[in-house]
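Why do we bother with holo predictions? Because pocket geometry can differ from the apo form. Keep that in mind while you read this record for beta-D-fructofuranose.
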Amino acid sequence: MKKISLLIILSLTILMTACAANKETTVKDPYTFTNGDFELGTLEGWTTTGQAFSQTMVSFQKRDANNLEYRQQGMYFFHGGKGDLGELTGTMTSSPFVLKGNGIIGFLVGGGIDPTLTYISFINQNDEELLRVGNENFNDTDQLFRMTVDLSDYLGETIRVRITDLDSFNDGFNYINVDDFIINFQGPYDVSPSIIKANDYIEANENKINDRYRLTYHAMSRYNWANDPNGVIWYNNQFHLFYQHNPYAANWGPMHWGHQVSSDFIKWTHLPVALAPDKTYDKDLGAFSGTAIEKDGNLYLMYTAVSGGLQQQAIAYSTDGGITFQKDRNNPVISVLDLPSNANSSDFRDPKVFKHDDTYYVIIGGKTNGVGQLLLYRSDDLTYFEYVGELLNNNNPDGSGYYRVTGGIYECPDFFIVDGQEILIASPMRIPKEGNDYENLHSVVYMDGSLDYETGTFTQDGFTELDGGFDFYAAQVAKHPDGRTIMIAWMQMWDRTMPTQVDGWAGAFTLPRELSYINGHLYQKPVREIENYRENHIEESSVALANGIQTSITGVSGNKVELEVEIDLGNAASISIDLLKGTENYTRITYDKQTSNLIFDRSHSGRDIRGMETNLATRTTTIEPINNKIKLRIFIDVSSVEIFINDGYKTMTSVVFPNSDDLGITFLATGGNAVITHLNKYDIIVK
Ligand code: FRU
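The structure, written out:
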């Protein structure tokens, strides 16, 4: 085996050296055609009609007036706009060549504002056009970017390349630049100009952020807007968090995928933007939510491409360890034509891709007759997908008793197994309030049950809200190599005012949480790695809370804090803890013994937050005390409060916007006496 591959490498090297030597003279190399890279400095090998493609058009300038590189290959490229003669029209056709290798042709293209008038086509011996493409990456400059076409259907045929310029307007970029045609193209691929632009924009502007409400131990976008976590995955020894991102404003806009990584879920490093709207199928509203999966060692992203009113599923993959991504040439891999007949094509989003046995499965949110459904697809190769069935259709709410009719769809589904139990998570829009549950405009729920991979049906054993606070949405799950199941969510809610928007950012993520399924219930705990950042430990036990007397404890204060507290309710009617307390503001958590309700009150937290809900003051969750005790683990991070109740049986997650000197923490019992049986306070410091 070894010998054979060595031989191949050797002969390839000889072949490549020979090709390089021959390049400028004949076309012996099966993978080139005469002057396909314009390095002859002339148009030799090309036949022209009209005026647009003439000798004078071959340019070898390295830089233009703005000092932007043309990004040409080698010395020369064909510059259709050279000398401002862009209004000329014509065609230019290469010499014929036999298509060999993988059938992919790569080339550089620039300019060409109107792809219907300036384009590149591939023609057969009968002068029939096999394929036509315009400049997909036009970015208001003359810069050339790599495009590829797949002509593998025509392998072995003799074809020619034809460049056409019918654009006779004399406004900017009404001509086409081309360079470096490579047959049997193997890469490397260019980074999309839309990604370069986004990264440059962030780099140039991120110092404008006002950090008064910035969190210190949570993931956030580097600059401007973030919503859902996407493609969370442990890959290459790191946890990758992609997210819905608008780099250009602190509000929702055409969706990019931001990207950051962490090796311990707490300390984050920003990476370049991973996806930007730059293809016909995603150029309008961009790359909506989706998931990630590893295949053959490479990272694949599956997302919803939104353009022209359609939502379809697309794939992008990385061959450089998950930094830059290429969009798959078969996109959209699941198009609106693959929808079942009862589904609508404008609400079809948020693919969750996962592998079961040797097959890839995808769960996608859909809509039928105005209500949500979840659809299941499958694929052997992540390229060709077939529809399996309807996982969930809440048209029949009384069926199992678990479905909930929503006015929107089940967004951002996720599916995983934890402690042997199959769990389906989704973010149903506008579930009507039910007791203390579903008070937010949209909710996140988990359904324990079982999935039938053949029919696509999911049998539910339960339907439970995942978090009882104000700000928790679009939760997503990843597996850690040590077996842990980690969940992270967007710590915000749609249609709320966000006081940080004027500061140049919006949207943070919850602490990553470890999930476990015990006695039919899903528990959440903050990732254990948070404990590595604890400092300034204060420990107390048996602190009496006398009826009606506000109690504070020396050293227990701050706004970057973990507070672990166990309270024996004694004969008190209720106990409350005020956090982030200043002269005017406080954020109050109250436990009411009679109703067994834990109430989170942010009506005096600081900045006012508005939204679509009637109750914007409090969120309530019901929880039974254990031996008359209630146990809270509270994480405060400048403008967020996450509460893990009774060892993670329930959680409440909310954002608040106090003043920077609102640092107090006090305790109160009313209607009787209570006791803090145990308390630990730590500052959480991430350097
Ligand atoms: C959920 C969501 C997704 C969608 C994304 C767009 O918050 O509405 O359904 O893909 O946000 O940013």
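The pocket of beta-D-fructofuranose is lined by residues 227-228, 244, 255, 288-289, 304, 349-350, 411-412, 473-474 (CB under 6 Å).
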